[in-house]
Structure formats: structure tokens, C-alpha cells
Amino acid sequence: MNPFVFNTTPSIVFRSGAAGQIDRHVGALLGPRVLLVTDPGLRKLGLCDPAVAALRNAGHELAVFDAVEPDPSVATVIAAVQAGIDARVTGVLGFGGGSSLDVAKVAALLLGSDQPLDEAWGVNNAQGPRLPLVLVPTTAGTGSEVTPVAILTVGGDEKRGVSSPVILPDIALLDAELTRGLPPSITAATGVDAMVHAIEAYASASANNNPLSRMLAREALRLLGANIETAVADGADLAAREAMLLGSMLAGQAFANSPVAAVHALAYPVGGIFHIPHGLSNALVLPAVLRFNLPAAAATYAEIAADAFPQLADTPEDSRAEAFVDALKTLIGRLQMPPRLRDVNIPQDALPRMAADAMKQQRLLVNNPRPVTEADALAIYTEAW
Ligand code: NAD
Questions:
Q1: Cα separations in angstroms, 20 against 3, 62, 123, 144
Q2: Ligand 1 site residues, Cβ closer than 6 angstroms
Q3: Rounded to an integer, what is the distance from CA 277 to the centroid of its chain?
Q4: Is residue 157 within 8 Å of 273, Cβ to Cβ?
Q5: What local confidence, expressed as pLDDT, does residue 286 receive?
Q6: What's the whole-number average pLDDT of the chain?
Q7: Fewer CB within 10 Å, N or C, the chain?
Q8: Gap from CA of 339 to ligand 1 centroid (Å)
Q9: Using CA atoms, how far apart are residues 22 and 27, in angstroms rounded to an integer?
Q10: Cis peptide before 129 (omega within 30 of 0)
Q11: How much is the pTM?
Q12: Would you say residue 156 has pLDDT above 90?
């Protein structure tokens, strides 16, 4: 068996309603002064209020940083760190989608160590230590609560990652009640993001692709495939929301240790240049990238096809991978997501620049089951356009 390393968040609390009693689960870890990192939309919705009240009632002082934007910038992280310094915080609580969680991760790192951010980019360069860190996801998508990764936007259009076990949080608290009000379009986009994590982790060419990740990816696909349409159609369905939140976390654990590949690499320019939400960016390039990968990965995709789409168990094995790609495309349509790059107003003459930008994501491209050249990337974008 190939040797491998598997890291994950050491403590996971999965309980609907847990955010309102967050002090009991995480209060001791975070210490007396807590930096809450979230986004303005969630603040306005009052989604953090029960957690804020629980912590204040338990005697914690809270500094609230609620200025995280989607695809957050380095400037946002610096502002969050300053808020933490001003309040002399003892712990960081990230509360929100992947954007808020990623800002919380890097803020906890910069507040806890002297290492400049410029030395922390890339894989295993962040040294720490960091402040105590708790993450509470409010989307069922990124799995950031169990990944060693934080993605920030640099210079307005480049997505860059810090990847190090140092930024895995101490505790992930998953409360599906928080996701019940997630609008259908965000439920769909973030849910497809989670499915992509599972697919890319399972098929990853990484030397650290491992049996735990593959097992988690398959269970994630079962949960996500069986529940995504219900969660989009009826957001209040708590059982579907719980399954989505669990599925996205399992997919996160999978890809945290068997990293994602060309779907993400080609999605980043879509998000970075055109500010298309991350999950939708993935969905827009997913079928074309998987079709490109078929010569190298058909057998692998055939193994997981029926996990996501049980009806594919009856499809002959030699055509099951293609049927899997078709089923994903159909699902994206059923979820009312725009199917093509042109549908989100990306002009055709932007495709060469996007292909050049995608080549910067070598950290991800090396994990793709089939090598991707710039010409390949352009052909994939052209198919997706
Ligand atoms: P997001 O955090 O950008 O949030 C998107 C929108 O959803 C925001 O407007 C937010 O207010 C709203 N929202 C979130 N939860 C809500 C709720 N419960 N109810 C109502 N509205 C809600 O979206 P995301 O897709 O979760 O995160 C995307 C970011 O995560 C990108 O920057 C991406 O690069 C990054 N990412 C990180 C990892 C990782 O491992 N760290 C993995 C994948 C993606």
C-alpha cells in the first residue's frame, strides 16, 4: 500500500442548534476575548446573533469583524488582523461560508505568529503558531472547516492559497439549522462545489491520494447526490440540510488530503477575473474538464458514478464514466444553474487570458489525472463557452 499522511480537524461537533450553545462547545478554547469573523450579509440576517449572545452571556468579550466579501482579498485579512490586535483577542471564531472561514484561518495565523503572509503562500510554508481557532460553516460547500487551505484574492484577480496543517482549526462546529435560509442559487452552487471536491479527491493524481480520502469521497457523493435537489427545492428540509452539511465536510476531509485538480484550476480564473461565485465557476467548467479527463480517468469515474447517481449502476461499465459526466451536466441544468460560460457574460475573447491564468495554478494542475497544457485549457474553456 502507498504510504500517506491524513490530517483533519481534531474535534468536530455536528449538531443542529449547536450554534446557540456555542459557549459550551468552544468557550474554554477561545479564551476571554474573541474575534468573530463573518460577512455583512450574515450579520444583517442575524445568523450569528445566537452564537454572539451565548458567548457574551458566558462572559466573553467579542470583537466583530463583519466585512468579509466573497472571494476575499488580502486587504480584508489585514483589516481583520488589525481588529484582532486592537481588541487583544485570545481566539478567532470564523462564522460563514468559505470566504469568512478562510479569512478567519489566515487572521488566526497572522495574529499568532510573526511570519509575514508573503512567506506563508503555497504548500506547507505557513509555520504558525496561530491563535485558537473555531470554524462554523453556514454553506454546505467548501469544507473549509476541515481543510488546511485558505484561498485569498491577490491583486484583484488572482486566487492564491495558503495550505498548511497549521491552519486546520481546533474545532469545527456544524449546525445545519444555520443553512436552512441559504437561498436556492447558493445552495446549488455550493453543493456542486462539494461534489467537485469529492470527485477530484477520488481521482486525484496526488501521491497522497489515499484510502481514507477515497472512502470519504464516496460517502460524500452518496449524501450530496441524494440530497442536493431537495435542499435546493425545499431549503427548510432539515434532514436534507444535515446530509448536505455532512457531505460537504466529508468531501472537505477527502480533498484536504488528496487535493483537487483541473476543475478548480480552471474555475479560479472564472471567479478571479469575472467574480462569478466559486461553486458556479466550478459547475461551469466541470463537464468539459471531466470529459477531457476521460482518456485517463474513465475507470476511476466509473467507480464513483453510481454513488452520486444510483441509476447509473445499471449502465455498462465501459460507458458509465461518460454517463456520469452527462448526469452531472443534467443535474447542473436541473438546479437552474447557468450551463455555459457565455451565459454568465464571459466574452469569448477572454478565453485565452483565462487559459494563461489557469496555468498559474500548478499547485492544483499537478493533481489532474491527465496533464493539462495551456492549449488544452483553451480547448476546455471553448467547449464550456
Ligand atoms: P461565500 O462564503 O463567499 O458566501 C457566499 C454568499 O452566501 C455570501 O453572500 C454569504 O453572505 C451568503 N451566505 C452564506 N451562508 C449563508 C446562509 N446560511 N444563509 C444565507 N446566506 C448565506 O461562499 P462559499 O462558496 O461558501 O465560499 C467561497 C470561498 O471559499 C471562495 O473564496 C473559495 O475560493 C473558497 N474555498 C475555500 C476552500 C478551502 O478549503 N478553504 C475550498 C473551496 C473554496
A1: 41, 15, 35, 21
A2: 39, 41-42, 45, 47, 70-71, 96-100, 102, 138-139, 141-144, 147, 149-151, 159, 178-179, 181-182, 186, 190, 193, 278-279
A3: 12
A4: yes
A5: 98
A6: 97
A7: N
A8: 20
A9: 7
A10: yes
A11: 0.97
A12: no
Closest CA to 63 of 84, 42, 40: 84
Q: Cell match 474575534: residue?
A: 35
Residue 131: predicted pLDDT? 98
At 268-296, the pLDDT tens digits run: 999 989 999 999 999 999 999 999 999 99
Q: Identify the three-state secondary structure at position 37.
A: strand
Alpha helices by DSSP H, listed for 204-277, are: 211-233, 238-257, 262-274
Cα Rg of the chain (Å, integer): 20
The predicted structure's pLDDT at residue 290: 98
Judged by DSSP in three states, 116 sits in coil
Look up residue 304 and give its amino acid: I
The count of other CB atoms within 10 Å of the CB of residue 348 is: 11
Contacts of 204 (CB under 8 A, 6+ apart): 213, 255, 258, 259, 260, 261, 367, 369
Answer yes or no: is pLDDT of 159 > 90.
no
Residue 202 has pLDDT above 90, yes or no: yes
Distances (CA, A) of 61 to 57, 231, 238: 10, 36, 32
* CA-based nearest residue to 107, from 96, 376, 27, 358: 96
Residue type, 310: P
Instruction: Give the residue whose CA is nearest to atom 15 of ligand 1.
Output: 138
Query: Could you give the percent of the chain with pLDDT greater than 70?
Result: 100
| Residues 14-23 pLDDT 10s | 999 999 999 9
